[in-house]
Structures are given as C-alpha cells and as structure tokens.
Amino acid sequence: MSTVEQLSPAVRKPATYADLEAVHPHLVAEILDGELVTHPRPRLKHAVASSALGAELNDAFQRGRSGPGGWMILDEPELHLGPQVVVPDIAGWRLERFQALPDKAYAETPPDWVCEVVSPSTEIYDRSTKRRIYADAGVPFLWILDPRLEMLETFTLTGRQWLLDATLSGKDDVNAAPFEAITFPLTILWPLNPAPDTQNAQ
Q1: Where does the UniProt annotation place the signal sequence (predicted)?
Q2: Domain boundaries, the chain
Q3: Are 123 and 153 in contact (CB under 8 A)?
Q4: Phi/psi of residue 188, each to 5°?
Q5: Using CA of residue 174, residue 147, residue 129, residue 56, what is the dihedral sign?
Q6: Confidence band (pLDDT; 50, 70, 90) for 121?
Q7: How far, CA to CA in Å, does 49 sit from each of 62, 66, 96, 190?
Q8: Residues 6 or more apart from 71 whose CB is under 8 A from it?
Q9: Per-residue pLDDT averaged across 67-90, rounded?
Q10: In what order do the strands lie in the sheet with 3-4?
C-alpha cells in the first residue's frame, strides 16, 4: 500500500530530493505536492501489461520497425516537473523535443505522452494528483491502463482539462492518439491470465 510521510501541520516541511534518495530501492518514491509518497513494486500482471505495451510502442515508434518511429519511449522514468517528482509507468517524447539523453538520473522536459498502469496502491494518485500534475505540465496525452479490469482509458489535454477519448476493454483494438499510426489488440497486454482454481471448483 502507498504511504505518505506525514508530520503535524505545525512542523510539516516539504519533502526534499534527499528524502526521496533515502527511500529503500525496492520502493518507488515520488514527491507529490511537497509530500513524499512511496509504494511497492507492482504485481506481476501489472508488470506484464506495462512491459507488453512498452514493447509494442517501442517496436513501432522508437525502433521504427513496425511503425513510423520518431519517439523516445522509456519505462518508469523519473520526471522533475517543477517541484513535482513523478515516476509514470511509461512515458514518451517526440524526438524533436528529446534529441539527447540528459546526463542525469531524471528528465526535466515534460513528455508528450504518459501511461499509468494502475494498481490498488497507486490508483488514487494516478487518477487524481498525478493527472493534475501532468495537466499542469502541459502533457498532451495520458493513458490509464487497468490490468485488473483489463481496460484502457485514453485522454487528450484540452485547455487544462482531460478529455476522455476512449474506454477500451475485452477484445477491442487499440488505435489511439498519439499512436494512431498503428493498431493492436488490447488482449496482447495480458496474455497470461490466472489459471482457473480447479480445486475450489470441485
């Protein structure tokens, strides 16, 4: 479960990058609105979905083998967006905005697209605080992938608000901005569903 380091209002101070660096490496750490937020590494179904989506987009938009290329796509990059430190599951930049990798552990250029793969420990942040942070930073596109419900929601930033473009589930095909140059079945993101519990079924 995610944890937020809390102090009483009288003595609370904004979290620092030193606080973040002191977090155990087995946890993902972010600074959201001045608070240090940590959560455990995701479950395997989350990791499979995130890896499968990243592989599909990397092949088409980073390597350019099954699509047009022109993007840099990274898994779990650390982003410094003003005072906010966020770690999306996947983020992408058009190459004209990200032509060289910075010689540091984080990126300060807001991405052109982010995807959050929600889990019980992160969903409240992914759907609220981090969505607002991405909008404030001017990130044009946001995808929210839910492996538990096997559902994908895609959003476009309009002004300062997120507009829901599509809600995909079941055997739907994914053809969504900013990656509408390719189409792929949503089902490839969860190829290993849990086996039936045959013992309890008897």
Answers
A1: none
A2: 42-190
A3: no
A4: -70, -10
A5: negative
A6: confident
A7: 19, 19, 28, 6
A8: 57, 61, 62, 92, 93, 94, 95, 112
A9: 96
A10: 3-4, 35-40, 27-32, 84-86, 79-81
Q: Per the omega criterion (within 30 degrees of 0), is the bond before 77 cis?
A: no
Distance of CA 25 to the CA centre of its chain: 19
Q: List the beta bridge partners of residue 86.
A: 79
Reported as a pLDDT band with limits 50, 70 and 90, residue 11 is low
Tokens 């086996």 -> residue: 195
Structure tokens at 74: 């990274």
Paired tokens of 108:
């300060």
Residues 22, 173: Cα–Cα separation, whole Å: 42
Cα-based angle 61, 117, 13 (whole degrees, multiple of 5): 115
CATH class label, 42-190 = alpha beta
Cα 163 from Cα 154, distance rounded (Å) = 8
Span 28-45, average pLDDT: 92
Q: Which amino acid is at 135?
A: A
Q: Are 125 and 1 in contact (CB under 8 A)?
A: no
Say what the pLDDT of residue 99 is: 75
Give percent of the chain with pLDDT exceeding 90. 77
Q: HEC profile for 81-121?
A: ECCEEECCCEEEEEHHHCCCCCCCCCECCCCCEEEEECCCC
